[in-house]
Design goal:
It is built from nine helices and 45 strands. The chain has 812 residues and is mainly beta. The strands form seven sheets. It has a 21-stranded mixed sheet that branches. It has an eleven-stranded mixed sheet with strand order 13-14-15-16-17-18-19-8-9-10-20.
Length: 812
């Protein structure tokens, strides 16, 4: 099961329509706009040529705007765009009316047929693919730019002029549903360190600046990657080797520009292909075969959210670089009195500098930070155009709300924002929801409360505490900590803690990560039936010196008591079940491509990112602070997920080792199983990645062990849609292996266990997404699977090695 996280700028920016009298009153014009006659929306990347001079001209930008500085009074302009009828308009006529409407053409690209040998577009696409490294902005040594972002949530088909509203949308009072603007500064240095600092923001009705979009909120910055990721869903890029195998390309037009000749190429999936493919336009320049303009939208309806992304790149004489980006999202299920909601975000880049950052300049490891100086920036200077009447009225409607409504709106927004940190703001303290309830087989049900101070009290320190009562073990647990934020740029923290709680013996000590195995970890915690009673004093220092990389220095003294409610015979007198352990060590973690932002005093990861690496090494020191045990404890974790074409691959590896004599059972690995029950077995359950589906929990005991798992999921075998349900089965193959060892196994003979010296093997086959249901914005896919246990640890009866499973996937 995989959950997706949406950024807080879940809104759209209206395209810059400007029809008021002041625009028409101008006598000499240099800027014009092209619109769709039916929808009234701007048309990006329209070719504008001069009659009888058709080798020269210009192209409209993402707002449908173009400059007419090179045109003369007697010129006749020719407007052409894929999907629209060609139109010729005298330039003198445009001086009187600067708005151009194009009529949609009903003729589809699929009516045209070209064989590969006759298609001149293929050679251009190959050249663009060969030059991706040269033109990809992410391959530059460094860059910086200023970014103006405007987003609005509006209604599809809403007239720009509020005076022509019908009664169904009068509740908007002439405005949009929501609007926000932001101004930020972006700096990037190899190998991937990128920071965007928001300097000013303006959000209708909401004071929290995180609801304003940043320059990469809605679409990728580079369009030269193998896949175009939207809402964490990878689509095959037409400018890629895999795209060459799955798309048809058509050379539609060419145009001489200031930077060379621009070739307009349309693309669409080859016959019989559509899964995670797109359709649209690319403008390939003869100058370095760079993508001058790029337009991409899904080739088929993908559910409740459909999108279109547009990007315009410019050439500075040496490098190509993004100049404008536009994202349009349409929500088929979000209906306001007959009109569908639409989100659009526009980003405009300026003050671009390439390869000119000081090599010694430090860039924050945090992806998005806030350094607001609202009074230091004048919006009229930042905006590309003046606000339209609808945009102005949107701000005015929210400004005129009564204080009670404003307070409710901001409280709701803050709750939504802080829920991503696992906290709910209540004045100067935060409620910690994860401390309210706990479910496992030892406590059965735990009820408690967790509170923490927040930045309203102090940006420098945080005091946190919790308590909980278990209704099965009838015991109270509690703890607290004091933390200090020493350096916000590096997120340097010092924390002192105390707790008296319970912990599962053999559990992983590495911090949890957001990955494909996260949902399985939650369910695995529910199955826990063995616990130790632990009283711990701890100290930690952590820092994030690089993007995605964090290290932590740890020290602790713990008094631990094995509850041993699961033993079959009484342990020998030589077995120590109550002891003190004094540990010192370090943790390292890395998440490649992680996008983070600061919310309050917390750093929040905004997306699933891979690869994930974790390493923990600690030493138990005898005699220090009463320590009674002596051992080394190590853990390593590696997870990666990648797509190739329509297939999805996942790899999971965990390794654990404890070195010492007379080791306490608390630190021994209890296997990688997911099958509930220590004595019985279940023939049917959910399948969760990262675990062995046929191994019982606590079935094995190891002081050194390793687990490897690889899975491969194909694209859909077929895709049959029926209103809100679809059949799109995908084959998912699994292969797992685990091996371990245990010194002095006789010490633990009071419990039932096996060792894994000979290796544990498991294979599985799933039919994922057999049935897909649409619920709100979410698509849920249900599938079935079968896993089989074999090799040295196969059970005597073949049927006992077989396990049937259900699988659930979730996506937008």
């Amino acid at each position: 099961m995989q959950a997706l996280k949406i950024n807080f700028a879940f809104a759209a920016a209206l395209l810059f329509l400007f029809f008021n009298g002041q625009l028409f009153a101008q006598t000499e014009r240099t800027t014009f706009q092209v619109f769709d006659q039916r929808s009234g929306q701007p048309i990006p990347f329209v070719h504008i040529k001069v009659q009888n001079k058709e080798s020269t001209g210009t192209t409209s930008d993402v707002r449908g705007s173009f400059s007419a500085k090179t045109f003369e009074e007697n010129d006749v302009l020719i407007f052409s765009h894929i999907g629209y009828q060609r139109q010729e308009i005298p330039f003198s006529q445009l001086q009187r009316n600067p708005i151009i409407f194009l009529v949609q053409d009903t003729q589809e690209l699929s009516l045209f047929e070209f064989s590969a040998g006759e298609n001149p577009a293929l050679a251009l696409v190959r050249k663009a693919i060969e030059n991706r490294e040269l033109n990809n902005p992410e391959k530059l040594d460094s860059y910086q730019y200023a970014s103006y972002n405007k987003m609005v949530m509006t209604l599809d088909g809403l007239a720009e002029n509020p005076e022509v509203d019908d009664s169904s949308v009068n509740f908007l009072e002439g405005g949009h549903l929501f609007m926000a603007e932001s101004y930020s500064e972006v700096k990037f240095k190899k190998p991937g360190r990128r920071n965007e600092t928001v300097k000013a923001s303006k959000v209708s009705g909401i004071q929290n600046p995180i609801f304003a979009a940043v320059s990469t909120s809605f679409q990728p910055f580079s369009v030269y990657t193998d896949q175009i990721k939207i809402l964490d869903i990878p689509f095959v890029n037409p400018i890629s080797d895999d795209g060459m195998r799955k798309y048809d390309y058509f050379l539609e037009d060419s145009l001489q520009t200031d930077w060379g000749k621009s070739y307009l190429i349309s693309y669409q999936p080859k016959s019989g292909k559509s899964y995670r493919l797109g359709k649209g336009l690319v403008y390939i320049s003869s100058n370095q075969y760079a993508l001058e303009n790029f337009l991409f939208k899904p080739a088929e309806d993908i559910g409740q959210i459909n999108f279109e992304i547009q990007q315009k790149n410019s050439f500075d004489g040496e490098f190509w670089f993004p100049e404008q980006m536009n994202s349009i999202y349409n929500f088929s299920e979000l209906d306001f009195q007959g009109k569908k909601a639409k989100l659009v975000n526009q980003t405009f880049l300026s003050e671009i500098g390439i390869n000119n950052l000081d090599p010694k300049e430090k860039i924050s490891a945090i992806g998005v930070t806030y350094d607001l100086n609202q009074d230091g920036y004048e919006w009229s200077q930042i905006r590309r155009d003046s606000l339209s009447s609808r945009e102005y009225l949107t701000y005015e409607r929210f400004d005129n709300l009564d204080q009670k409504t404003k307070r409710l709106l901001n409280n709701g927004a803050n709750i939504l924002a802080y829920l991503s940190t696992g906290r709910v703001k209540l004045g100067v303290v935060d409620l910690i929801p994860r401390r309210l309830f706990r479910f496992n087989q030892f406590e059965r049900f735990g009820l408690g409360l967790g509170l923490s101070t927040n930045e309203r009290l102090s940006d420098f320190f945080r005091v946190e505490g919790y308590f909980r009562y278990g209704f099965r073990d009838k015991a109270w647990k509690y703890g607290g900590s004091v933390g200090f934020l020493l350096n916000s740029e590096l997120d340097s923290r010092l924390q002192l803690g105390y707790s008296k709680d319970i912990e599962e013996p053999g559990r992983s000590l590495l911090p949890p990560s957001r990955s494909f195995s996260s949902s399985g970890s939650i369910f695995r915690d529910f199955l826990t039936s063995r616990m130790d009673q632990v009283q711990r004093y701890s100290i930690e220092y952590s820092q994030m010196p690089f993007k995605g990389f964090r290290y932590k220095l740890i020290g602790s003294v713990e008094n631990r008591a094995n509850v041993l409610n699961y033993v079959e015979v009484r342990p020998s007198d030589s077995f120590i079940s109550n002891f003190t352990a004094t540990e010192a060590g370090a943790e390292l973690s890395y998440v490649g491509g992680e996008s983070t932002t600061r919310i309050g005093n917390d750093i929040v990861s905004m997306t699933f990112a891979y690869p994930i690496l974790g390493l923990r090494v600690s030493k138990a020191i005898p005699t220090l602070f009463g320590g009674e045990v002596d051992f080394w404890n190590t853990e390593f974790k590696f997870q990666h997920q990648w797509s190739r074409g329509n297939s999805l691959n996942q790899f999971h590896m965990t390794a654990q080792g404890v070195w010492g004599s007379d080791l306490p059972i608390s630190y021994l690995n209890t296997g990688f199983g997911f099958q509930p029950g220590e004595g019985g077995r279940s023939d049917f359950s959910f399948a969760f990645p990262g675990y062995l589906q046929t191994m019982r929990i606590y079935e094995f005991l190891s002081d050194r062990s390793i687990h490897l798992n690889y899975s491969h999921m194909t694209g859909p075998i077929f895709n049959k849609k029926l209103e809100k349900m679809a059949f799109a089965p995908q084959l998912k193959f699994h292969q797992s292996f685990a091996i371990g060892s245990l010194n002095q196994p006789e010490r633990y003979e009071f419990i039932r266990f096996q060792t894994m010296e000979r290796g544990f093997w498991e294979s599985g086959l799933e039919l994922a997404n057999l049935i897909k249901f649409t619920s709100g914005f979410n698509t849920q896919g249900w599938g079935i699977g079968v896993f089989y246990r074999y090799g040295p640890y196969a059970l005597p009866a073949a049927k006992d090695n077989l396990r049937l499973t259900l699988s659930l996937t979730a996506a937008f």
